[in-house]
Design a protein that fits this description.
mainly alpha
Length: 196
């Protein structure tokens, strides 16, 4: 990330942040299973751990997916443009690449919302001694969501007008709105645990 190359960049880091949020939700769930006093939550915590682990894996895959998508944009920009036919083919290739480069962080934002919700579940039902980890998970996943949205927004001007662009603008606003309440509930649950 710290090199002079534009990829991996913010989109990959967004996915990594989301994966860390999911990993913390899984950790809290795993620290609940088998713990005395949480017997009634063992089954749901086991399921939560599996879901969070799968989500972590999906977000880790998105780290590389984002880099690949931006590499495709760079490759399209390097296409020849000497003739009108080449210019047209290059323009089409750039448009396709930017749509993909927008789709990948959009998918990352969706996954980060899921990670936030899993962290909330972990904070509410999980081992109280790990409540702060669930809170950190929600915050890191929220950072991943917001970072992914920034990457969507920076690519949108290069996406051709149409249904995809309109739907994407609406969806990123929806994802941001839907993430606020679960983060707030997670932090409230953590605060309640810290007070007791």
């Amino acid at each position: 990330v710290s090199s002079n190359s534009p990829a991996p960049g913010g989109g990959s880091v967004a996915a990594l942040a989301g994966s860390l949020g999911a990993a913390l939700a899984a950790m809290v769930a795993n620290l609940t299973v088998g713990k005395a006093g949480y017997e009634s939550a063992w089954a749901s915590a086991s399921t939560l751990a599996e879901r969070a682990q799968a989500l972590k894996s999906a977000l880790l895959a998105a780290v590389d997916d984002d880099t690949k998508a931006f590499d495709d944009v760079l490759a399209a920009m390097r296409l020849p443009k000497a003739t009108d036919a080449e210019k047209s083919a290059r323009s089409d290739a750039i448009a396709i690449a930017y749509e993909k480069a927008t789709s990948v962080p959009l998918a990352t934002a969706r996954l980060c919302l899921q990670a936030i919700k899993l962290a909330e579940e972990a904070a509410v039902t999980g081992n109280r001694n790990s409540a702060s980890d669930a809170g950190v998970g929600a915050l890191v996943a929220k950072a991943g969501l917001e970072a992914a949205v920034l990457n969507v927004r920076i690519n949108l001007p290069s996406v051709r007008e149409g249904a995809f662009k309109v739907a994407t603008v609406a969806e990123i606003a929806d994802l941001q709105a839907k993430s606020a309440a679960p983060v707030a509930r997670t932090l409230a649950a953590v605060q309640n645990t810290l007070k007791s």
